[in-house]
Structure formats: structure tokens, C-alpha cells
UniProtKB/TrEMBL annotation, chain A:
UniProt keyword list: Cell membrane, Membrane, Transmembrane, Transmembrane helix
Molecular function GO terms recorded: transmembrane transporter activity
The keyword Cell membrane appears for this protein: yes
Name assigned to this protein: ABC3 transporter permease C-terminal domain-containing protein
Organism: Actinoallomurus iriomotensis
Transmembrane segments: 21-43, 254-283, 304-326, 346-368, 426-447, 644-669, 690-723, 743-766
């Protein structure tokens, strides 16, 4: 850039401070949100999908009961429609290990939940295993554990008391399966030594399909496979989407709404830069004429005006990169721990790409008005000066002047028609601000409703929870029953049980006592009533391909029990892989409850003072080392983070929209400063001047708000369910329906508020401008 | 008010109109301390007391002649019917009623200045301030505007007219003040009528 050109650019940037700040801030907003959104998407899904495809991960791993199907019949299922590759059948057993030597990790002798052990080689056409530590098992007594099976590490030993000979196994390797198809692997020849007497190993078959990117597609694939298997020999499947969900959940949950803000920010940035540079050209027509008369070429004029956009835009981009990367640290921290997939920060190429795209968008947006400046004819530019021709908007002024409103208001309402392009752009900016506010507020309300729904897991007035050592539950039950103020109560506890067809254990929460009043928030169906009924979280239903009305078989060693799914509940723990039922439903399985998971929830009788009750019951509970407390609502860190992030982005978007209005009002006011002087000379009071300036943007703001709110509502309707799916749950309809009339009315007026806020400063400036000075301005 | 260019005529006029404030001293019009009025007070004072006529007309280009003339009344809150009646009466009186739906850009300089005069008279102000009202007009138009000003004055309208044209002052002033370098150089009754 030549010295002269540099001076012109610097002078332009310095002279239009408001516009410069607005351009910088919009670029900051766009880049912050875009970096965060793109970074999250890349960090979560990219590496997982890449690794999954590279390892030919299994879209579906199916378990067939050997008593009902032959190995050849299992092999034949590979011919099912849509199957592109298959591996197996592999022998599969479910066995309970008991730790022998875990180097101080697990206490020896305790019985753990079922391990799904498969006999196979590490490589194959489907599910190519990655050995991360040690070596592959080659002889009896050697086992390779899944990297996801945390309790056992390399060198640990275990026994399997449920099989003949109580064989001792040593962990010789740790491997990772992209689709998490098993908990452990041994050579095929080792499987007989892990098979209970009198039984035969089941079969595992692994499939890849042509289409398997949604639950619906996988359901269809599963149905096609099941159709080729006799009877009910297919007892369970595991979907790769469940594994993908777990690996990408943290960032994938955040990504949808940040993407929305990123897009809104980028569009806003382009619009505002267009307004600012267009305004600079319109306001500086005379200046451009002078520059050209001094010898500036059209190209130099174009570069000068591009520079005036790119300098603040560039500064805003740099600030946005810093803010985006800082915001990514808490948001993306979790992903680093998941499946070895995520990164703790934004990939550098994402920063570079977002910066380049934003800079290009700013340059493109500034190009049209800059080119117009370059093409202006010198003589006309000098002659025209700053005052607009006044040709536009005359009809509107005439028509609006007939309205029975004070004249300053009708003059203000007609102002947008003098600059229809600029006004339309400002309207879009305000509409984007309104969309952001509508979406952001709705999101926060939905998140809070969901949190309230999740808090229903712990109902009642008083609770005994967070045990630090095992208690005699019968005695605690008795103490609670004895208290005169006790109304209804129950205790709940967790156990890990197998579900036929699913690798690994499923968390089962069982209730004992009167739990009829303790329904969690239901997504579909109803709460369980007594034995044989179960409610499940969405993640479980998706992973197992089951739905309300289906039966599932719960397994604990050689014992099994079939229960019916009667409802879908809201929960996001363990990727929604949990079910809830009455304890009598699993009594026959003799599950081992986690002794520290017991919780006692009490609803008091009407009129009972809660503090008095707590004091009284705690006297009885003291000997057992537990105490009752008030049941208070909890707020998850994730919800707090989302609220904070959505709130910050909404406020930033609103600020930029307000600044866009401010910029427009400043341009309009400066262009019409002479007319303003005339009006003041004719007796327009400061209040009338303020009213006129605010009305000049208020009408547009009101319309933009009315247009923006339904779009924001629609965005909310699309994004919240996507976030729910990313978190592993469907969203209850009641939590998604947050826009009631008392909320919508203020939102509809939001555009007016944004416009008014943005116009206050120029209105004050217009009021304070000395009339004599304004009249001298040409 | 006579004086060469830069003598302070327009500044004094602006201060009388409450458009500008003196660095020192006071401005009193008909017992009102204009320099103490503040923005809102000045606006009210101008609506009630002052009608302004400028050298370059200062009409709003995007309003019709009638809408320009109506403005002071609308800002003062005059009832709609009364304002329209008054505007029509003024436009007819000044011979420009046929232009009431026309935009100022289509009028000649003399016609525009008549519109400006009509606008200045709209609220029946006791004082008209005219800053070089013929300065931007050709000889014929200027003569027509001067005749109009004189007629108004003869009908009892007080007019403070600023000009550097001694001929104009001589043709219509009943009293002439002369400024030189911001100071009063002469204050006398006029002058030949």
C-alpha cells in the first residue's frame, strides 16, 4: 500500500470509529462462534469416523443363540440385503471374572459383571482390532482385554469361577475395537475352556452395511439380518451409533447450537460490513471526488475502501480466534478423554480456515460498495456532496404524513424509504439479533426444563443419599417407616446386569417401596407399575433397537428374566444405557446391588414441617452412619456451560445487531444533519428529535422482530432435538414447547428494543448538535 | 441589519433565533432571555415567536410545498384542520397555491423563497428573521421577494432582515443596524423609504 493510500485508509478508519468498532465486533462474533463450532465438529466426529472406516468397524454386532441356529445359518445371514461385508461367526461366551491380581486395583475375589468374550483373530474383513498394549493372546490362559474395560490392565490375572476348572487367565494385551464388539478376546481354541458345562458358546456375527448412518437405517438392516435367521435365534445386537455417540457426545451436544450462532454471526458480519462500507461510500462521495481529482486511480480508491473494512475486520478476526480457542478449552475438555478421539483444543487448520473464510466474506461484502466508489465520476462526486438526492422515499413521506400521528414520528417512519437498501440490510441484522435472542432464550428454557425433568429422578421432600459406606437398608427403611411424618417413600439402588444381545453391562435402577409417585419425566409411554415392567432411557432403546411394548431379557450369569418395556424416560447418564424397574422384577436374578448407590426418597405427609422431620429422623438414622437432608434441585455442569455459552453468544449477537442499528442511524443522521438543522430551526424540540430518530429505525426493528421470532422458534425446534440425540436422548415434547405467549410478546418487541437501543446514541448526538452548525453543513 | 461578509450578521441572527449561543453577553427578545432557554426552551420559543427565512431556502426536498409549509404548525401541535386552512390561506396569499403538491426541487428560486416565507409565517410569529433572503435569487425574483417582504411589513409583521446589500436595506428598512467586525457600527432610523 502506498504512503498516500495508507494515510487515506488510516484516516478513514480513525474518522469512522463507531463503524470501525462495529465491523471489528461482528467479525469477532462470527469467528468466535465459527471456530468453536467447526472445532467441535472436527474434533468429535472427524477422527472417530476416520478411525472407524479405516478399521472396517462393525456397524452391527449380532449375537445368535447356538441352541437355535447353526454356524452355517449364521454365515448365511451375511447375504442379507444391504450387507457389504461380514465377519464370523465367532464363538462367544458371557462369563463373570473374579480378580486375582490386579496390582492393587480391584480387590481379589469379588465377582464382577459379565464379560462378553469372543474367540477370534485380531484382523478381519470387519472390525480390525488395534492392539494398543502388549501382544495378542496365542495360548490357553491368555486374554486380551478391550481398552474400554477399565478394571483390568496389562499383566492382571483373573479367574472364571462359573466354568469348569476355574481357569486362570492373564491379560497379555489391550486392544481397541472401533465398534466395541466385545469386552475381551481369546483365540478361538480357548473358548471351550470358558464355556460352562452343558452349554455351547453362542455366535457373534459382525456386519457392515451400505447405509448405516441413522437408527432407522440400522433398524432396517437389523430386520433384514433377522429375517434370514431362524426363529428368535438373534437375541441381541449392538449398534455402532451407540459407540459413536459415546465418543462424540460431549462436543456433539454443544455443536448444534454453536453452529447456529456461527452461521448467524457470519451472516451478520457480512451484512454489517456491507452497511458500513456502503455507508462510508455514500457519506464520502465528495471525499472520493476530491481523492480522484488529486490523482487517485479507481483501483486505489477501491483498495482504500477495502482496507477500511479489512483492518477492523482483521483485528476482529484475531480477537475472535483468541476468544474461540479460549471458549473451546472447557467445552472440549471432555472429548479428549473419550475414546482417544477428541483433542483438547481447536485444530490449527480450523483456525486458519475460519479466519480465511471470514476475511474473504468481509472482502466480498466490502467489494461492491468499494467498486462503486472507484467507478464514481469525479465531477459528479464533487458536485453531489453528502446530501442524498431526496428522490427516494417521497411517496412514503407523503403517505405517512397523512397518518394521524405526530409529525416527528411520521418523518421518522418515512426515513427508511430514503435508503431502502441500507434499511433492508439493517432489518436483516435486527432480525438476526432477534433470531439469536429467541433461539438462545428458548434453548436456555428448554435446558432448564430438561434439567428439571432429570431432577425428577430424585423426588420427594427429604432424601438419604450419597452414602460413603454400605448400610443396612432394612434398618434405614424401618427408621423411615417409623417416623410419623412419613407419607410415601421408596429406596432405589443400582446394579449392572446383562441384556441379551448387548456387549457389556447395562445399568439397572431398581425401586423398592411405593414408587408410584416417583415417575421420572416420560418421553413416551408410562411409568412402570409393579413386576415385569420396565422403563428405559432413549439410548438403551436406540442401542437395542427396541421400542415400547417389546420384551427384553435381563441376564445375570445363568439366570435370566424377561420384562416388558412400558415407557421411555428422560436420562442422559451412561449415554442413556439404563433401565428402571421395580426390584421384584429382578429378584430372581439375585443381582448384586452397588452398596453405595442406595438412595431413600421420602414424601412427607401434608402439613409436616420438613426441618422438624429431618431432625427427628436423623436421630433414628444416626446409629447407621447416614443422615437425611432436604431434597434440593441439582444443576448439571453441562447445562450451566451451555447456558453460559448460549447466553454469551446471544448477548454478543444482540450487541452487534444493536451496533448495526447504531451505525445505520449514525449514517442516516449525518446524511440528514442539514435537514435536522432546518427542522430544529422550525421549532423541533429535543424530545421530538429523539422520537424522530428512534422512529426512523423503530419501525424497521419492529417488523424485523416480528419476522425474526418465528425463525428463532423454528430453529429451536430443529436444534434442540438434534442436541438431545447427540446427548443420547429424545426430548420430551413438553421441554421443547417453551414459547408461550408471555415469552413471545416480549420477543416480538425485541426488534424494537434492539433498534431503539441502537438509535439512542445517534438520537442524543442529533439532539445536541448545534442548529447553526447543522444548518451550515452541506 | 447591514454589514460586509464576515461581520457577524448571521451569527447575531442565529443568536436571536436561539440557534446559537453567545460566548459572552445576553440575548433578550421581547423580555425573554433567549440565551438561557436551553434546547427545549429554544425550540418552543422559535415555534411561538420566530419565523425564519434563509438565503438558500432550506426547504426539505423530499416534502411537497404544502408539507413544508405545514411543518412548523405540526411541530407546534396545531390542530390538523386549522393548520391546513392556514397553509392554504398562506399559499394563496403568496401566489403559490398551484404548487402545493409540488416538490421544491421543481420550483424556481423565487418560488422557493415564497414557500420559505409561507413556512415562516405559518405559526403567526411576531418576528420574522430573514437571512439574505434575496442573496441566491436573480434580479427579477429578488424584486418580487422584496415586494412581498415589504407588503408583510406594511401589514404589521416585524421583520429583521440581514443583508449586505445597502440597496435592499434602503428599499425596505424602517431601521438599520450596521455591523463591522462583530461590533455595532451604526444604529439609526432609516433611511429612505
Amino acid at each position: 500500500m502506498t504512503g498516500g493510500l495508507g494515510t487515506i485508509v488510516r484516516a478513514g478508519v480513525g474518522r469512522r470509529r463507531v463503524q470501525t468498532v462495529v465491523m471489528g465486533l461482528t467479525a469477532t462474533l462470527a469467528v468466535t462462534a465459527s471456530v468453536l463450532a467447526a472445532g467441535l465438529i472436527v474434533a468429535s466426529e472427524g477422527p472417530f469416523d476416520h478411525a472407524f472406516n479405516r478399521k472396517h468397524g462393525a456397524h452391527l454386532s449380532a449375537r445368535f443363540v447356538s441352541s437355535q441356529i447353526t454356524s452355517a445359518q449364521v454365515s448365511a445371514t451375511a447375504r442379507a440385503r444391504q450387507v457389504t461385508a461380514a465377519a464370523g461367526p465367532y464363538p462367544l461366551v458371557s462369563v463373570k471374572p473374579t480378580p486375582v491380581d490386579t496390582g492393587g486395583g480391584l480387590p481379589p475375589g469379588i465377582q464382577l459383571t459379565d464379560l462378553t468374550v469372543v474367540g477370534r483373530r485380531p484382523s478381519g474383513s470387519v472390525d480390525d482390532l488395534t492392539l494398543t498394549k502388549g501382544r495378542w493372546a496365542t495360548k490357553p490362559g491368555e486374554i486380551v482385554m478391550s481398552a474400554h474395560n477399565e478394571p483390568f490392565v496389562l499383566g492382571n490375572t483373573m479367574r472364571f469361577p462359573g466354568v469348569p476348572g476355574d481357569p486362570l487367565f492373564k491379560v497379555v494385551g489391550i486392544a481397541r475395537s472401533a465398534g466395541e464388539t466385545a469386552d475381551a478376546w481369546v483365540p478361538r481354541t480357548t473358548i471351550p475352556s470358558l464355556t460352562a458345562s452343558g452349554s455351547r458358546p453362542d455366535y457373534q456375527m459382525l456386519y457392515r452395511f451400505k447405509k448405516a448412518s441413522t437408527n432407522a437405517q440400522l433398524d432396517a438392516d437389523r430386520t433384514a439380518v433377522a429375517a434370514l435367521a431362524p426363529g428368535k435365534s438373534l437375541v441381541g445386537v449392538q449398534s455402532w451409533l451407540k459407540v459413536r455417540l459415546a465418543a462424540t457426545r460431549a462436543s456433539a451436544t454443544f455443536a448444534p447450537f454453536i453452529v447456529v450462532f456461527g452461521i448467524l454471526g457470519l451472516v451478520m458480519s457480512i451484512l454489517v460490513v456491507g452497511i458500513v462500507v456502503g455507508g462510508a461510500v455514500a457519506a464520502g462521495t465528495r471525499r472520493i471526488g476530491i481523492l480522484k481529482s488529486l490523482g487517485f486511480t479507481p483501483g486505489q480508491v477501491v483498495r482504500a475502501y477495502l482496507g477500511q473494512a479489512l483492518i477492523p475486520g482483521g483485528a476482529g478476526i484475531l480477537l475472535g480466534l483468541v476468544l474461540g480457542n479460549l471458549a473451546a478449552i472447557p467445552v472440549m475438555g471432555d472429548t479428549a478423554e473419550v475414546y482417544g478421539v477428541g483433542r483438547a483444543g481447536i485444530a490449527p487448520w480450523v483456525d486458519a480456515l475460519v479466519a480465511a473464510v471470514t476475511l474473504l466474506a468481509i472482502a466480498t461484502s466490502a467489494w461492491a460498495p468499494a467498486r462503486r466508489a472507484g467507478n464514481l465520476r469525479t465531477v459528479e462526486a464533487i458536485a453531489v456532496g453528502r446530501t442524498p438526492s431526496g428522490d427516494r422515499g417521497r411517496v412514503a413521506r407523503r403517505v405517512l404524513g397523512r397518518l394521524p400521528l405526530p409529525r416527528p414520528l411520521t418523518l421518522g417512519l418515512a426515513t427508511p424509504f430514503a435508503r431502502p437498501g441500507r434499511s433492508a440490510t439493517m432489518a436483516v441484522a435486527v432480525a438476526i439479533g432477534t433470531i439469536g435472542a429467541t433461539f438462545g432464550i428458548g434453548l436456555a428454557l428448554s435446558l432448564n426444563d430438561i434439567q428439571s425433568g432429570i431432577n425428577l429422578r430424585s423426588p420427594g421432600d427429604v432424601v438419604v443419599s450419597d452414602l460413603t459406606s454400605p448400610v443396612n437398608t432394612d434398618k434405614v427403611d424401618a427408621a423411615i417407616t417409623r417416623q410419623p411424618g412419613t407419607g410415601q417413600w421408596f429406596n432405589s439402588a443400582e446394579a449392572d446386569l446383562g441384556v441379551a444381545g448387548l456387549a457389556g453391562a447395562t445399568t439397572v435402577i431398581s425401586y423398592q417401596g411405593d414408587s408410584s409417585w416417583a415417575s421420572w419425566q416420560m418421553i413416551r409411554g408410562r411409568w412402570f407399575h409393579g413386576a415385569g415392567e420396565v422403563v428405559a432411557a432413549s439410548g438403551f432403546l436406540h442401542a437395542t433397537g427396541t421400542r415400547i411394548g417389546d420384551d427384553i431379557t435381563l441376564v445375570n450369569g445363568s439366570r435370566s428374566s424377561t420384562v416388558k418395556i412400558v415407557g421411555e424416560v428422560l436420562d442422559v447418564r451412561q449415554e442413556g444405557m439404563l433401565i428402571v424397574l421395580d426390584r421384584t422384577s429382578i429378584a430372581a436374578l439375585r443381582p448384586q446391588m452397588d452398596p453405595l448407590s442406595y438412595q431413600f426418597d421420602v414424601r412427607l405427609k401434608a402439613g409436616v414441617n420438613r426441618d422438624d422431620y429431618i431432625q427427628a429422623v436423623n436421630r433414628d438414622l444416626e446409629p447407621f452412619g447416614v443422615s437425611a437432608t432436604r431434597n434440593s434441585d441439582k444443576l448439571s455442569d453441562t447445562v450451566v456451560s451451555m447456558d453460559a455459552l448460549a447466553g454469551a453468544l446471544t448477548i454478543l449477537l444482540l450487541c452487534v445487531a444493536g451496533l448495526g442499528v447504531l451505525n445505520t442511524a449514525v449514517l442516516d443522521t449525518r446524511e440528514r444533519v442539514h435537514d435536522l438543522g432546518v427542522l430544529k430551526a422550525l421549532g423541533m424540540s429535543p424530545r421530538q428529535t429523539t422520537a424522530m430518530i428512534i422512529t426512523s429505525v423503530g419501525g424497521v426493528g419492529l417488523i424485523a422482530g416480528v419476522v425474526g421470532v418465528p425463525i428463532g422458534v423454528a430453529l429451536h425446534g430443529v436444534v434442540v432435538p438434534i442436541m438431545g440425540r447427540a446427548a443420547g436422548t429424545d426430548i420430551p415434547a413438553v421441554d421443547a414447547a417453551v414459547y408461550d405467549l408471555p415469552l413471545v410478546i416480549p420477543l416480538l418487541l425485541g426488534g424494537l428494543v434492539i433498534a431503539t437501543a441502537g438509535a439512542l446514541l445517534p438520537a442524543g448526538w442529533a439532539t445536541r448538535t448545534r442548529t447553526a452548525v447543522a444548518l451550515r453543513t452541506e | 441589519m447591514l454589514g460586509p461578509s464576515g461581520s457577524g450578521k448571521s451569527t447575531l441572527l442565529n443568536m436571536i433565533a436561539g440557534l446559537d449561543e453567545p460566548d459572552e453577553g445576553t440575548v433578550t427578545v421581547d423580555g425573554v432571555r433567549v440565551d438561557r432557554l436551553g434546547e427545549a426552551g429554544s425550540a418552543k420559543y422559535r415555534r411561538a415567536t420566530i419565523g425564519m427565512v434563509f438565503q438558500f431556502f432550506n426547504l426539505l426536498d423530499d416534502l411537497t410545498v404544502q408539507d413544508n409549509v405545514l411543518l412548523p404548525a405540526q411541530l407546534a401541535g396545531m390542530p390538523r384542520a386549522e393548520a391546513h386552512e392556514r397553509a392554504f390561506e398562506l399559499l394563496a396569499d403568496l401566489g403559490i397555491e398551484q404548487y402545493r403538491g409540488t416538490f421544491p426541487g421543481r420550483l424556481s428560486g423565487g418560488e422557493r423563497q415564497r414557500v420559505a416565507l409561507a413556512r415562516a409565517l405559518m405559526n403567526r410569529p411576531p418576528l420574522i428573521l430573514a437571512d439574505e433572503p434575496t442573496g441566491a435569487l436573480d434580479r427579477a425574483s429578488a424584486g418580487s421577494v422584496v415586494r412581498l417582504i415589504r407588503e408583510l411589513n406594511e401589514r404589521g409583521q416585524t421583520i429583521l432582515l440581514v443583508t449586505h446589500d445597502t440597496g435592499l436595506a434602503a428599499s425596505c428598512a424602517t431601521r438599520t443596524i450596521e455591523l463591522v467586525d462583530g461590533r455595532l457600527a451604526r444604529d439609526g432610523a432609516a433611511v429612505t423609504r
